[in-house]
Design brief:
Number of strands: 3
Distance between the termini: 74 Å
Helix content: 55-70%
Strand content: 5-15%
Structural class: mainly alpha
Order of helices and strands: HEHHEEHHH
Number of domains: 1
Oligomer: single chain
Largest sheet: 3 strands, antiparallel
Number of helices: 6
Keywords: Membrane, Transmembrane, Transmembrane helix
Protein name: Putative integral membrane protein
């Protein structure tokens, strides 16, 4: 059903998994931290999202997979530790965040490998026929959009959490010191 995975496909999947394992060490949240995963999924968009099939239930499939990616991304972002140290946002993927990422990446990778072999391809073809999914490209688009949803929402959640910490720290710096009440011990 789906074409066999190329060496490039394997490399991209492995790099995306390694990015999260690397984040199990605390690091500063920087433009590079955000831009590297976005560049990888941008590259995937250019290479895999053409054409986007719209017949039958192809868009529904893509929407469901994208929604699943958004949910994975939200939980992954919430399970990532975000703290402020020396005025800088620091992030560290928790075991739960890494496990969620590996599970979702593993699902996509496993599905791609399974569906490129005869028995998996037959199951996918039967399911597609029964549910009015019109092409193998619909599955490719769905899997890529799932990854996009996960990456973008996870990063967005982490960045927003970091920005909230910075804003809170700035408010605390500019807030006037509380005045001691007469007769109160300080």
């Amino acid at each position: 059903m789906l074409d066999a995975m190329t060496t490039t496909d394997w490399i991209i999947d492995i790099v995306l998994v390694l990015i999260v394992f690397r984040q199990m060490r605390e690091e500063r949240l920087t433009a590079r931290t955000v831009l590297l995963p976005l560049a990888i999924i941008g590259w995937a968009a250019v290479n895999y999202l053409h054409p986007v099939p719209t017949a039958g239930n192809d868009l529904l499939l893509a929407g469901l997979f994208a929604a699943a990616g958004v949910v994975f991304g939200l939980f992954g972002g919430l399970l990532t530790r975000v703290r402020l140290a020396d005025g800088q946002v620091r992030v560290r993927a928790s075991v739960g965040a890494a496990a969620l990422w590996v599970a979702s990446m593993g699902f996509r990778l496993g599905f791609a490998v399974w569906s490129s072999h005869a028995s998996g391809a037959a199951h996918v073809a039967h399911f597609s026929s029964a549910h009015d999914i019109t092409s193998a490209q619909a599955w490719v688009v769905a899997l890529i959009l799932m990854a996009f949803g996960e990456v973008v929402v996870r990063l967005g959640t982490i960045v927003l959490r970091g920005q909230r910490l910075l804003a809170r720290a700035r408010r605390e710096e500019t807030a006037p010191a509380p005045q001691a009440q007469p007769g109160a011990y300080v």
